[in-house]
Automatic annotation (TrEMBL):
PROSITE patterns linked to this entry: RIBOSOMAL_S8
Pfam families named in the record: Ribosomal_S8
NCBIfam families: PRK00136.1
Subunit structure: Part of the 30S ribosomal subunit. Contacts proteins S5 and S12.
Name assigned to this protein: Small ribosomal subunit protein uS8
InterPro entries in the cross-refs: Ribosomal_uS8, Ribosomal_uS8_CS, Ribosomal_uS8_sf
A single cellular component GO annotation: ribonucleoprotein complex
Main function: One of the primary rRNA binding proteins, it binds directly to 16S rRNA central domain where it helps coordinate assembly of the platform of the 30S subunit.
Keywords assigned: Ribonucleoprotein, Ribosomal protein, RNA-binding, rRNA-binding
GO molecular function, one term: structural constituent of ribosome
Similarity annotation: Belongs to the universal ribosomal protein uS8 family.
Top-level taxon of the source organism: Bacteria
GO process terms (BP): translation
Amino acid sequence: MSMSDPLADMITRIRNGQRVNKSSVSSPASNMRQRVLDVLEREGFIRGYNRADDQTGKPQINIELKYHEGQPVIREIKRVSKPGLRVYSSVADLPRVRNGLGISIVSTPKGVLSDSEARDQNVGGEIICTVF
């Protein structure tokens, strides 16, 4: 069965895994998912991830979730731009998540970046999700 929004599926797997205190979750692999995970790892929201093949030979991404004093580091993760409603923003209009405590992940012409990296490089783009 095909998914209409694979990125939302990965975000939901992360959210559900942290609700039940799992140490890691897996998701089907894609380059876009890896770029989003790169941003989450750089910003310190996950421990890391690795790409491996499952028993059927399909590529999977194993995401190592991060906890601080028993609580998940990611308190809230939401998909902003959806297949039915894309959300784009110029560099001047990039949203601040929880007054700068969280991040927005933005797909720009220079790659997938956090909102602060996009401001530093002076580029806007599609707002993929927000993380707090």
